[in-house]
Amino acid sequence: MVMGDITRIDTVQQYCDLFEVEALHPLVSVVNCYEVQPIRHSKKLYNIYAVLLKDTDCGTMNYGRSLYDNEKGSMLFIAPGQVMGSDDDGSLHQPAGWALMFHPELLRGTSLAHIIKEYSYFSYNANEALHLSEQERKVVIECINNVAEELRHPIDKHSRSLIIDTMKLLLDRCIRFYDRQFITRENA
Fold this sequence. Notes:
- This is AraC family transcriptional regulator.
- It comes from Phocaeicola vulgatus (Bacteroides vulgatus).
- It is built from five helices and 13 strands.
- The chain is α+β, with helices and mostly antiparallel strands.
- The strands form three sheets. It has a six-stranded mixed β-sheet.
- The longest helix is centred in the last third of the chain and has 29 residues, at 159-187.
- The termini are far apart.
């Protein structure tokens, strides 16, 4: 849904539709951006969570009313109700990287639902992207691939808990990587 210059994303399916990829689950999806067609820049109002691993320089991105520190090889974290993106300059760009999106409903009744706000990188106050080392990048991609693999598995009574546990592992690893990023900077 488009509101003025902002595209509103209320569901995982809407995000997948932007990239013309199949959503394998109504509440969570992984998009391999290397497999999508070029798209135009846009600002998006997310009403889902998004964890983005960017392997391309997207230029300056707006995050709420601020600019986001973003460069090639960084991770971005978006919570419901947040606006992120760049103004449409009329040209197409080829996304590169990975996107993990999940609807808050996926977390309902889980321990992750109770602690998701503790992951401070989902806050507008954290206006710095996570810059990964090559080893950290491999860990992140492995976690994202594990979620994707579970999504390709036929849904059964274990699917939700395995997906959420894998997502929690990814989020916990990212806290560790953020801590490393700031400790390294303090020691420099």
